[in-house]
Amino acid sequence: MTLGTIISKVLGLFYVIPFYAIVKEHGTALYQFSYVPYTIFISIATAGVPLAVSKFISKYNALGEYGVGRKLFKSGLIVMLASGIVSFLILYFSAPFLSEIMLSDKGSSSGADNISVADVTIVIRAVSFALIVVPFMSLIRGFFQGHQSMGPSAVSQVVEQIVRIVFLLVGAYIVLNVLNGSLVTAVSVATFAAFIGAIGSLAVLAWYWFKRKPHLDKLLEQDKGTMSISLGEMYKEILTYAAPFVLVGIANPLFQFIDQLTFTRAMLSLGIDKNHAVSAFSVLNFQSHKLVIIPVSLATGFSLTLVPSITKAFVEEDWSSLNRQLDQTLQVLLFLTLPAVIGLSLLAEPVYTLFYGHAVLGTEVLKSYAPVALLFALYQVTAAILQGINEQRFTVLSLLVGLLIKLSLNIPLIKLMETQGAVLATALGYTGAIIINMFVIRYFARYPFRLVARRSMLIVIFTAIMYISTKLVYLFLVLILSPETRFQSLLIVIICAAIGAAVFFYLGHRTKLVYVLFGSRIDNLKRKLRLPIKKEEGSRF
Fold first, then answer.
1. The whole model's pTM is what?
2. What is each CA distance from 57 to 2, 65, 181, in whole angstroms?
3. What GO terms fall under cellular component here (predicted)?
4. Beta strand extents in 50-179 (DSSP E only)
């Protein structure tokens, strides 16, 4: 499952290189105008459904009540198909309204250099078809996961991404370069790829279903049949499990949606050319965002594996164990994310050039946006901890406060600092949400934060040393290599990233911090790399 997620994330990052080359900045901006509303809709419809369904089925399977899970599955398919169709109809018919509030003009048509309401309406409607399939598909994934079968979800996830990307790239290229079609048509094909990818995933899940149905039917024959649970009770329990994950899942798309509503208007009010405003929006909400979200995904994925232990310690009121688990979670997050985002900020110019071509604005935005990724990760993990200590109600409060800060400050800061203002407003919004989450953790989990604060200072010092050493290497490399060309940018990134990682992990190893955080995993890694393993004596601090 982890491998499938990582492959899917990597594919989701690297496809933007050829896609950007095909449709350029205005194409990616148009793509993002449609994809953020779709992401919000799909998150509301499906976020937490696989996990909630798997938790429900696993619970009743453990009790020998296999019929309860099958009953949920049969009715759930109908419910999710119906909700998918309803979601599709709402997004399809609300597309003109959403387009109008996202754009300040109301033109009926456009060329490649001018995005209009009609253009955004077309691409939103193209992507909306995926809503018919994805909720239905997510329920099947949850059913398999509830039976401790992760292969179907993992494989279908990767197949969905591959099919989507191939259709997206080939379709957009053919429309523009073979059929000489418009940019709007090319981007519409690219967004419709979400539907094609979902069909590919559904085909994989159907194959797994027919292959494993005999085994599932044998389990059903062992059903005790001692519990009678109504559909109403089932869905009430499912919603209880899924609701917190929906809020966390839509947080980032909602912040992006606020930019879609306000960014172009604020830039135009400054007298900035519309083409430049659209290009700046594309840089902010698509190009840079795609890059900064990768270290967040990997780091939070590692940290969130510790959340079940947090839940167990909290339920048992084992405060000492709970504090240790919270210490571990937050330290691992900082150790993995902080150097990654600072390194990305330092190498903003060659990294941006590598993916999208050289651009001064892209470099500036990525340089300031990369550190904000640490806040993305902290919000996700602190929100997950709130779920672990059964205080997920405060997730609603923290998210609303964060969105209110973003909404109230976005336009004033954009008018003051242009694109950098939107980045700052996002950072302030997330900071507000994180502070609330941490206060709740401090109060309800009786967590002191002292050890994390002390270790955080050590990680900051390590990161500063890494930054200085990598910066010196970078300054030397740019004397002989140009960050304005892709190949030379690749060399700069590889050399600097290798040196930065080596310095940072060397410091962590010398102080034994890596052993404190990762324990036996370090020895396992050394065995795989055939490095000598010494008996460690523990931390030096």
1. 0.75
2. 21, 9, 49
3. plasma membrane
4. none
